[in-house]
Amino acid sequence: xxxxxxxxxxxxxxxxxxxxxxxxxxxxxxxxxxxxxxxxxxxxxxxxxxxxxxxxxxxxxxxxxxxxxxxxxxxxxxxxxxxxxx
Length: 86
Prior knowledge:
Blueprint: H1 2-22, E1 31-34, E2 37-40, H2 46-85
Antiparallel strand pairs: 1-2
Helix pairs in contact: 1-2
């Protein structure tokens, strides 16, 4: 379960990075030298984006925990039923 959560976090971090670099720059766009190539610095509100991303990642983690708890309870219940029958 921890591996899935970690993979989701890495996935969303990569996705956020891709969005950051692909967003259009403002009319006054600044250039920044990144890894030897010039990239245009985006002017979107990164704090607003990061708050929204943080909220969504937290929702995803909460959903994953709730779902895993339900699955564990269902598995325990099935195991108890099999033990009682057999």
